[in-house]
Amino acid sequence: xxxxxxxxxxxxxxxxxxxxxxxxxxxxxxxxxxxxxxxxxxxxxxxxxxxxxxxxxxxxxxxxxxxxxxxxxxxxxxxxxxxxxxxxxxxxxxxxxxxxxxxxxxxxxxxxxxxxxxxxxxxxxxxxxxxxxxxxxxxxxxxxxxxxxxxxxxxxxxxxxxxxxxxxxxxxxxxxxxxxxxxxxxxxxxxxxxxxxxxxxxxxxxxxxxxxxxxxxxxxxxxxxxxxxxxxxxxxxxxxxxxxxxxxxxxxxxxxxxxxxxxxxxxxxxxxxxxxxxxxxxxxxxxxxxxxxxxxxxxxxxxxxxxxxxxxxxxxxxxxxxxxxxxxxxxxxxxxxxxxxxxxxxxx
Length: 348
Prior knowledge:
Layout: H1 3-20, E1 42-47, H2 55-70, E2 75-80, H3 88-97, E3 102-105, H4 127-134, H5 142-150, E4 154-164, E5 167-169, E6 187-190, H6 194-202, E7 206-209, H7 215-221, E8 226-227, H8 232-239, E9 245-247, E10 253-261, H9 262-266, H10 270-284, H11 287-305, E11 308-310, H12 314-327, H13 333-336, H14 338-347
Parallel strand pairs: 1-2, 1-3, 6-7, 6-8, 9-11
Antiparallel strand pairs: 3-10, 4-10, 5-9
Helix pairs in contact: 2-10
């Protein structure tokens, strides 16, 4: 190479080096997943009370995988099923504090009594009615619930319906189980919820608070005779061995929700919020149809297992609805406020 060309090459290399030192002028590498072994930007915990093989856990896994992929590995979420991080009330408490970042479970009423509206008894008794009320983002009840939960420190990300409520009985059926005007002489487990307490009382049961995690033992030892707060699947997964009879009252819609800690949500970029919201919305979209099928499947599982399953007739359901709506719903005014009760009556 001639002396002239050597000088030109050296000058060119020097120019490239100088340009690379100027901020904003260096070539920018495309955004990629963190290199192997690098720490993610966020590393979260997701709690689910159901067993590993449940539909809710399978849904959780799909949402978690999509969030991880769409964030290029910046958001990593560890899933803890089977009450590994406590029961659903404990999970929601930690969610509010930000010590658990996400979960898929039903709504607690401890932090704002107005949230009792989600469990308003016999609010919906068909899947068409349930979808109109609870589906996200357009259900007539969903927007109200999202606003109320934000005030407690929890952000809703989509409805995941578990199914319609049923009640298991450990030893005997009560007299006239479908008649709200007959005293049942039985103790019914309820969760901390005024709506559940009022429903149990009006149906002739004695409401008795028991944590879900302690329910199996409570029914086995006679602390309570029956329970409210589960669906066909939940009763099957958790208490089938102490369920001699089961009544599919459809007393409430067990609506679960994808949820995230509000303080965690508020600290995210708009881009990351969209990734998480889109993943939850996509998974929630088809859940109503799947839940309808699942309810019927687990009612049959109980029959095959030797449990006697009772379902109210149309006439029996009508009598229960009339009693609950005339006697229980007005009592909820003191709990959720007259404006919310009026809103429910106008839309239900």
